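Supplementary notes for students who missed Thursday's class. We covered one full example, reproduced here. Read the sequence, then the structure, then the short commentary at the end.
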Amino acid sequence: MRGQNYSLWSLLKHGFKNHQTWEPAWERVALKPSYDVVIVGGGGHGLATAYYLAKNHPQVGRIAVLEKGYLGGGNTARNTTIVRSNYLWDESAAIYEHSLKLWEGLTEDLNFNVMFSQRGVFNLGHTLQDMRDIERRVNANALQGIDAHVLNAREVKEKIPQLDCSRSRRYPVLGASWQPRAGIAHHDAVARGFARAASRLGVDLIEGCEVTGMDISGGKIRGLQTNLGMVKTDRVGCVAAGHSSVLAKMAGLRMPLESHPLQAFVSESMQRVIDTVIMSNAVHGYLSQSDKGELVIGAGIDSYLGYGQRGSPHVIEHTAAAIIELFPQFSRVRMNRQWGGIVDVTPDACPIISKTAVQGLFFNCGWGTGGFKATPGSGHVFADMLAQGEPNALARSFTVDRFHTGHLIDEHGAAGVAH
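Structure (token representation):
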């Protein structure tokens, strides 16, 4: 109790001093004329890449992260924070499980509380075909060493008492898959934790720095043009989520990507009633409850292409109706705020982690709606690629060449409600 009083007094004392004596989370530095490695995109994946690159490959030299806005202000700040690894195919399940294992030790590794809560994720089944798909995926997860269980309707009701499991519903709940180790984390804490850790390892984090062009000659990357000036470098990693195709075009490349708005919203705060994550393909919605008591609700990507970051009433109405189908008692809960992010989607709903035809230019993109859950794993394997020039075992299947060879990894079903 004395420690808690001291913490409260410390907060008040520093608050009255406008936090002038608080050490900045990361060092603000000016853009230098050259770097050994430049990472374009200061979201969760870009910051994680910078951290693991500096930590595991110090021999690469000077590293910079260029972010056109503020760190963690893109999709990292515009998602529903779900973390899971119960994907169907071995290649994608392996990289998401690698990421989940990193999540489990991330707070300690970064010495920053990312508020990772392993509260479990349920994927509901409403038809016989849903249940066949669930059993197939759970069996695949068992072979992959990933925790997963098939539950019947009675077992689902026992674990989620608030869920309407009556057979009279339009979409009756027949069962679910359940991954106990899955859960949620705090998006802002993740970005700040990786940013602080990377900065302390000597990475330059440059905000307000937009890449406007690429200097390429002789088939090699020579540097980047930015609104803050020219930067010389012979190794660039692009991790810009929904804007990856824009960067690829600067290099004369065309990526198999589509950028779609993805909307979500939260309710007013209330007493805790949901202590897990519930997803449903059939009604097309999913929800969890934040530490502040808000219901965090999302659905699928918008059908049209675009870069809008605003919500739209018809999507919110459809998603709210889906959640009320599962939880009729939420019908009178008021919405607090809504937002949109920009996701880049590949034809097989799996990411691209790949070198390109331009020597020294690498891309990490196409995560669709699975980006947040992959944050540490994505950064870890992409750091290896930037350091070694080649993909490691986990990333080898996600090269852009698969769209020419036909070796696709179709995860549309296991990717959740979004595709």
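Commentary. The longest strand covers residues 335-345. Residues 30-118+182-256+347-419 form a domain with the FAD/NAD(P)-binding domain fold (CATH 3.50.50.60). If anything here is unclear, bring it to office hours.
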